[in-house]
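FIELD: query
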Amino acid sequence: MKIVRYTLILALAFAMAGTVLGQKSALHKLSKKYAKMEGFTFKEITSEDIDIDVSSDDAQGVKYALDNLDYIRIIKTDDDNPDTEQSAILVEKVNEIIKAESFERLIMVRDGSEQVGLYMKKNDSGNVTDGVLTIAEEGETALIYVKGEFDMSKVGGLNNLSYLQSLGQETTGAMEGMDGPE
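FIELD: result
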């Protein structure tokens, strides 16, 4: 499933958490709005939803990431009833927010009708606080929004594949309930 793969890429690339002086970001508000909208599926994953063993020294980067993760929010069009008009509006609003809030584009991949964008935002201390993965393809749109605060130099242990595989299995299990807004 592409959504699971992209979720893992984003979560591992940023593994972030944190709030900005108690204010809710525009992406936070937008994700809450689409969580209740017909034609979309919403899932929120927190560190409590991911149960992996992080006791070894090799897993310290993973432990740091999970300790600092506020949430991962996933919004995607429903497979059986996508609302293409609202989907286009979602993509447009996300792009406006990314531009207005000075997100840094890390990568943009275009392949035929599929477009994937990866963005991040840093605070004044240089820590990553927000990560966004946008996926737009014919018949499917998804937004994966990761909120937190990460010193990326402390996330070095994320390159251990055994922990990535374990995280993938746990995240897949956490996403199994993605059959409608919560």
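FIELD: remark
The CA atoms of residues 163 and 175 lie 18 Å apart.
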